[in-house]
Design goal:
By secondary structure, the protein is an alpha+beta fold. It is built from 3 helices and 2 strands. The longest helix has 14 residues, at 49-62.
Length: 101
Amino acid sequence: NYLGHYHILHGVLAPMDGVGPNEIKVNELEARINNGTIKEIFIATSSTVPGEATANYLIDRLQNKNVLITRLACGIPMGMDIKYADKHTLARAIECRSKTS
C-alpha cells in the first residue's frame, strides 16, 4: 500500500540513443526534492540493463540529498518454479532478501 506521490521519468538513460538525464525528467525530480517536502525517493525501474543503469545513476546523483532512497524489491515472481530462474534473477533475489524474524 503506497500513499505517496510519484514522479514519472518518461524513459531510461540510453546514451547511445541520445537519451540523457535532461530527456527523462531527472532535473524536475531533483527540483521537487530541493523543494524540501520529499522524504523518500522510491526507485522503480525495470530489471533491464538500461533500467538498472538509470536506477544507479539516480542513486549516485541523489545520495547527498536529505531523503531516504529505496528500490523496488526484485527476485522470483509469484507462481514461478525456482528451478526456471536464471542466475541473475537468483542473485538479485538473494541480494534483495528480507529478514523474517
